[in-house]
Amino acid sequence: MILFDLFFVFFKIGLFAVGGAYSFLPLIEKEVVENYRWLTKPEFLDVLGAIQIFPGAISIKYATYTGYKLAGIPGAIAANIGNFVAPAALILLVGALYLRFKDMPPLKQAFAMIRLAVFAMILAVAFQAIEMKELLRFRGLLVAAIAFVLFAFTKIHPAFIIAGAGILGALGL
C-alpha cells in the first residue's frame, strides 16, 4: 500500500507542479508534511537545505528521500516513477496542442496568470526556507542582496554564487 501511496502522491505533485523546480515545494510540503505526515516541517526544511547542494531536480530528490525513508529502494523507485509519469504524459499531450494553438490570446493570458501564481508560491517557499532573524541581520541582507544582484544581472553561474556564500559562511564572515 505504501508504494502505491508514494506513487500516487508524487504523481499528483508531478501533475500540478507548473513552473519549474521551486513550484514543486508548496505541493510537496502539502502532501508529505501536512496530508500524509511522512516528513515533519523541520525535516522538510532540513531536506530542502541539504538537497540544494546536490545537482538535479528538487522533486526527484524529495521523491527519492521520502520514498527511501518510507520503503527503502522500492519506495524511492515508486515515488520517482509517479513523479515522472504525469509531467511526461502531459508534455506529450500539451506539447502537441500548444504547437497548434500557441498564438491564441486566451492561452497566452492563462500562461501569464499561471506564471504570476507560481512566482508568488516560490516567494512564499523562499521565506519559509529561511529564518527571518537571519535575513533581517545586516549580514543576511547583504548576502541576499549580493546573491540576488549576481544572479539577476550577471552571467555568473548560480553554483558559484551558492559556493561563494557557503565559503563565506564557513569562514564566519
UniProtKB/TrEMBL annotation:
Entry keyword Membrane: yes
GO CC annotation, single: plasma membrane
Annotated membrane topology: Multi-pass membrane protein
Main subcellular localisation: membrane
Highest taxon of the lineage: Bacteria
Molecular-function GO terms, alphabetical: chromate transmembrane transporter activity
Family the UniProt entry places it in: Belongs to the chromate ion transporter (CHR) (TC 2.A.51) family.
Transmembrane segments: 6-25, 45-65, 77-99, 111-130, 142-171
Cellular location(s): Cell membrane
Keyword terms: Cell membrane, Membrane, Transmembrane, Transmembrane helix
Name of protein: Chromate transporter
